[in-house]
Write a structure and sequence with these properties.
Length: 120
Amino acid sequence: MGDLERLVMEQLWAASTALTVREVHERLAGTRELAYTTVMTVLDRLAKKKLTERERDGKAWRYRAAAPREELAADLMRDALDRAGDRREALVRFVGQVSDEEAALLREALSRLDGQERTG
């Protein structure tokens, strides 16, 4: 995702309901000077990429994020690993850069998955 797409997605993730183009445009007004048509194009592009879902509301579309940001982050990490060439080396380098807290979270997640495999 580009910076503008990310900025629009942030608005959708922060919203409790689906937003129209106008509502997204108004929310962005305080951060960036964007034309209404630019926001409309970005939302349409995000829908085509299946990053948003949209539904008709009269003449307008209402948009919501298709998945939580954490799921998107996981998908991006998996895609990066797929393109890394040496997947093992990429994982080793990634783990070498995480904080102690993040390493503990990774250990906990792996332990949980290991436990699920044994019981499942």
